[in-house]
Design a protein that fits this description.
Number of helices: 18
CATH architecture: Orthogonal Bundle
Order of helices and strands: HHHHHHHHHHHHHHHHHH
CATH class: Mainly Alpha
Structural class: mainly alpha
Strand content: under 5%
Radius of gyration: 22 Å
Largest sheet: none
Length: 346
């Protein structure tokens, strides 16, 4: 190997070129379990890779973003949402000369603990657990404790902090974490508009005229307006922010989405069914903890049976939760009769 390896060269380039407010890879607070450094990758790149290759990340492809079981292949899932957050966050970080590797690692892991059926599943577990349930806290639990056969991913402090604090009320310790938090909101508001229009819940003409006038009249224009504003307002500053006029319209658009989509009876027509599935699975496994998957049973004595059951259910995809519910609660003869009624020629 050369006297200066690829990692140390890259760390030197970071120190020379990144903003004074950026988090340098060489200055990480480190991992709970120290490991030898890689000759090629920085610590934050390694974190990104560990998240990308773990099972929990792959399961995001079959977890709901907003629309349950949509009829079409172009609706967002929790995985595609994660990728869009990463793209927006990396674009902002690169323009602000922040650490793009740290930004990407946080973005890739921010929703890794999300439940099946999106926030519907989260709401059920939050109501059923004595200490409540929040997907950001569960995401941290996944990377610290549940993944890798119970060993966790052993990520750096900065990535774990960004994952925990990505919600609107969080306070990340790095500007990169702040970028991901804002990028998460920019992504979901805009792509949920796109999906709502595709589903016929909204049309472009329904959007508040002031929001369209200030932010733009298309998905791409709105995102571009927000990104450019964040970069302009935050460049060489110790904070990540939007200008007041853009933030005002952004919040107005968010309020509009809660009123017309997130709480819309058409968009949420299947939500009560999804909640019922989660409730019944939770009750079943609480009464039959011996039937939990092996990797979760050890947490029965460590964290209590409610948390262990929640861990198991939160890790399920929409598809797995539905199949498990059918297996446990629907008589086999009913399923066979139902399938027999389906005319394959129609």
């Amino acid at each position: 190997m050369p006297e200066v390896n690829a990692r140390t060269y890259y760390e030197r380039v970071q120190a020379e070129t990144l903003s004074p407010y950026a988090t340098l890879s060489q200055n990480t607070r480190g991992r709970e379990k120290p490991i030898p450094q890689c000759e090629i990758r920085t610590d934050f790149i390694r974190d990104r890779d560990r998240i990308l290759h773990c099972k929990s990340f792959r399961r995001l492809k079959h977890k709901t973003q907003v629309f349950l079981s949509p009829q079409g292949d172009h609706y967002r899932t929790r995985l595609t949402h994660t990728l869009e957050v990463s793209q927006i966050a990396r674009t902002i970080s690169r323009a602000l000369r922040l650490n793009e590797d740290l930004t990407e690692a946080i973005a890739m892991g921010h929703d890794i603990g999300h439940t099946p059926f999106g926030h519907s599943g989260e709401d059920v577990l939050d109501a059923l657990l004595p200490d409540g349930f929040e997907h950001n806290v569960q995401s941290l639990r996944v990377v610290e404790k549940l993944e890798n056969d119970g060993q966790g991913l052993n990520l750096t402090y900065e990535v774990r902090d960004g994952i925990l604090n990505h919600k609107k009320n969080g306070h990340p310790c790095t500007l990169e974490g702040c970028v991901v938090s804002l990028a998460d909101r920019i992504a979901y508001i805009n792509h949920d508009i796109d999906d709502a229009i595709r589903a016929g819940v909204l049309s472009e003409s329904d959007l508040p005229k002031s929001c369209v006038s200030v932010l733009g009249d298309s998905h791409g224009r709105r995102i571009n307006t927000m990104i450019l504003d964040v970069v302009e307002q935050s460049f060489d500053q110790p904070a990540i922010r939007m200008s007041e006029p853009i933030m005002e319209q952004f919040e107005a658009l968010r309020d509009f989405m809660f009123a017309h989509v997130y709480h819309n009876p058409v968009a949420k027509s299947e939500e009560q069914k999804a909640k019922h599935v989660v409730e019944e699975l939770f009750a079943y496994y609480l009464a039959h903890t011996d039937r939990l998957a092996d990797e979760y049973r050890k947490y029965l004595t460590i964290d209590g049976k409610e948390r262990a059951v929640a861990d198991y259910i939160a890790g399920m995809t929409d598809n797995y939760a539905i199949r498990d519910y059918v297996r446990l609660f629907v008589p086999k003869s009913w399923m066979e009769a139902s399938l027999a009624d389906i005319d394959p020629c129609k």
